[in-house]
Amino acid sequence: MSDFVSSFWHYYVLGLVILSLLYCGWVLVSNMSRRKPGPVELHDHVWDEDLQEYNNPLPRWWLYLFWATLIFGVVYFVLYPSLGNLPGKAGWTSANQYDAEVKKAEERYAPLFARFEKQDLAELAKDPEAQATGQRLFLNYCAQCHGADGQGSKGFPNLTDADWLYGGEPATIKTTILGGRQGVMPALGAAIGSDGTKDVANYVRSLSGLANDSLRAARGREIFAANCVACHGPEGKGNPALGAPNLTDKTWLYGSSEATIVETVTKGRQNQMPAFKDLVGESRVHVLAAYVLSIKKQ
C-alpha cells in the first residue's frame, strides 16, 4: 500500500475488510435459528422434476467453526499489516523477515563461499561441491535468459559453446557477471538505405559461407568497409574489447537469414547483461563464474 500516493486506497481497503467481516457476522447471526418442533418444511424450489430441499438450520459445528475463523481473521488483522497502511501490533513486515532470513543464510554459508573465493577459477570449475552450488546460483539468477542448460535462445548467448562476444577467459567471465555488459549495434538504415542494408546483409552472409546474391555482396563489401569495420574489423572477425561479434563463424545471436540481418542493420540492436555484483556479491559471483566456466566448450 505504501506504493500508492493517495490515502484513498488505505481507506478503501480498510472499509472493504471491515464491511466483509461485518457481513460474515450478519450471515452467521441470521443462520443461528434453532430447529422448530414439528415436521420440517420443504423449500419451494424443485430440481430434476422431483428433488426438493428441506429447510433445516445449519449444523451447529459448522456455525461454531465459521465463528472461529471469523475471530481468527479479526485477531490476524489486528496483529499483522492487513488493514490498509496500518502496520499491525506484532510489528512484523515481509522486509524484516527477508532481512532476517538473508542474515541467517549469510552466517551459514559465508565460510563456504569464503573458502571457494580463495581458489582459482579454473581449479574451482572442477570442484564438484562448487559446481553444485554454482548450478543453483545459475538456475536462480541466469536461467531466465540463458536457459537452465546455459544454451541460450534468440538474443541471449549460448554459454556452452566456444563463441564469446567479450572473451571466454575465466577473469573476463567473472568481470562480465560482476559489472554486466551493454551491447549496442547502431541503426544504419537511414544512412545506407534499404538497398544498402540488403547489400550488406548479403555480404555478411558471404563471410560465413551462407548462400548470397553475389552482385549484392560485391556492393555490400564497399558499404561494410565504410560503415562496419570500426567494430567488426576489416575481415568481419569482430572485436572482443567492444563485444562486436565475429561475422565469419556460424554463430548468430538473432539468426542468419537475410531478413534478420537486414533488420539488425536497419534498426540496430540493444543488448544488456545486468550486473550482479551488488545483487549476488563477489564471493557468489566467483562460484557462479566457475560454474559457467565448467559448462563452456573449451
UniProtKB/TrEMBL annotation:
Pathway named in the protein's UniProt entry: Energy metabolism; oxidative phosphorylation
Localization, UniProt: Cell inner membrane
Similarity comment: family membership: Belongs to the CcoP / FixP family.
Keyword annotations of the record: Cell inner membrane, Cell membrane, Electron transport, Heme, Hydrogen ion transport, Ion transport, Iron, Membrane, Metal-binding, Oxidoreductase, Repeat, Respiratory chain, Transmembrane, Transmembrane helix, Transport
Pfam family, one: Cytochrome_CBB3
Quaternary structure note: Component of the cbb3-type cytochrome c oxidase.
Domain Cytochrome c residue range list: 129-208, 215-296
Cofactor binding remark: Binds 2 heme C groups per subunit.
Protein name, as recorded: Cbb3-type cytochrome c oxidase subunit
Protein task: C-type cytochrome. Part of the cbb3-type cytochrome c oxidase complex.
Spans through the membrane: 9-29, 61-79
Required cofactor names: heme c
Record InterPro entries: CcoP_N, CcoP_N_sf, Cyt_c-like_dom, Cyt_c-like_dom_sf, Cyt_c_oxidase_cbb3_su3, Cytochrome_c_Oxidase_Subunit
